[in-house]
Amino acid sequence: MEDDDFDLGLRLRALRQLNELSQRELAKRAGVSNAVISLIEQNKSSPSVGVLKKVLAGIPISVSAFFSQDLTPRQKVFYRAEDLTEIGSGNISYQQVGRDLSDKALQVLHERLKPGADTGETLLRHESEESGIIISGEIELTVGDQRKILKAGDAFYFDSRIPHRWRNSGEVDAVIISACTPPTF
Amino acid sequence: MEDDDFDLGLRLRALRQLNELSQRELAKRAGVSNAVISLIEQNKSSPSVGVLKKVLAGIPISVSAFFSQDLTPRQKVFYRAEDLTEIGSGNISYQQVGRDLSDKALQVLHERLKPGADTGETLLRHESEESGIIISGEIELTVGDQRKILKAGDAFYFDSRIPHRWRNSGEVDAVIISACTPPTF
DNA sequence: CTTTCATGCTTATTATAATTAACACTATTA
DNA sequence: TAATAGTGTTAATTATAATAAGCATGAAAG
């Protein structure tokens, strides 16, 4: 969380290249001159937060996310799974990773909702947390007294004990990848 | 974006007063002139991040904490695409849902690997499980003595204590949504 | 080979932020 | 009644960042 070793120029450059943008392309999106990007990346100038905001909006990334150098040490590992198991019905498809989750600590789902599809009010009483990312389409998610429409790339994280529901508020199929833990059924 | 309504001046003033510092006292500690504090708090000037760093060091608070609007007593549920925390570098992008996972039981990531991107051999000794789904592109996974190429729609589930690695074996970017539990390191 | 385009970098000028030194206000104190 | 020390604000100057234009390199095309 400390910023002493925070190299702003390096971080901006990494983010820009990660998003496959040239200095000029980013500058154009951000509405600044290309020299600004060059100078900032070389740490030859310290941008005002106003300008930094504009630049980051062109990537896009928020200022707070930019400074969150959360180097959460991440486990870099993957393994092959079984075919996805269809556990849904009607106009909502739930494709689950893995067949028998009884001894597992994680449930990952590939969900597809047809337009208008609704989960209905759900009250879960087990201790678990749920998170996911919208792949395509549009989802209206209600958690407790909070409600928001999420689109492709947006995400969510909540405690499953809070009453929640979601529905496809768009005109096309909505696709979500979600995860929850533990998969106690 | 969460920063659209971010009032930098207001936030600085609130933090300064919370710490019972006068503009002059804070300026002295920060090594800047007192007028700077006044102008920033009135949003009459947009400080460079260099100056902002110095000012915040006088409170003291880190830049990342300053921009993290975690004042919200309310649990954060919705994350916009640009608010996902980028924790990657180089040719692998990891966008994490949520910033501080220290009290959470789930880590969900939106990953993007450039062609040829490779994690290298990793040996992890944590008791955790990981799962995910390939959204697009092609991934070659190696786990123990098994190896397989996964394409869009394929998925995986494994015990992360097994040595493993993965790389983008295709010609285009590969996108994965993955989850692992717990994020306690 | 030359031409064209895109890339990142550099320089001179312009715009903006930071400093210095004042101002106005309040509360305390002689 | 000043006189003093604290506060936040402001104006003029200086320092710095942002712009516009051009330079240099490298890749692809003619």
Textual characterization of the structure:
2 copies of one chain form a homodimer. Helix content of chain A is 22%, strand content 28%. Chain A has helices at 8-18, 23-30, 34-41, 49-57, 63-67, and strands spanning 85-86, 92-96, 107-113, 129-136, 138-143, 146-151, 155-159, 164-168, 174-181. Chain A starts with 7 loop residues before the first helix and ends with a strand. In chain A, helix 2 crosses helix 4 (49-57). Chain A has 2 domains: 8-67, 434 Repressor (Amino-terminal Domain), CATH 1.10.260.40; 85-181, Jelly Rolls (Sandwich). By secondary structure, chain A is an alpha+beta fold. Chain A is elongated and about 55 Å long. In chain A, the strands form 2 sheets. Chain A has a 6-stranded antiparallel β-sheet, with no helix packed on it. A 3-stranded antiparallel β-sheet of chain A has the order 6-5-8, with no helix packed on it. In chain A, a hairpin with a 2-residue loop joins strand 5 (138-143) and strand 6. The first copy, chain A, has 5 helices and 9 strands; from the N terminus they run αααααβββββββββ. Chains A and B meet through helix 1, helix 4, helix 5, strand 4 and strand 6 of A and helix 4, helix 5, strand 1, strand 2 and strand 3 of B. Strand 7 of chain A pairs antiparallel with strand 1 of chain B. Chain A binds a DNA duplex (30 and 30 nucleotides) through helix 3.
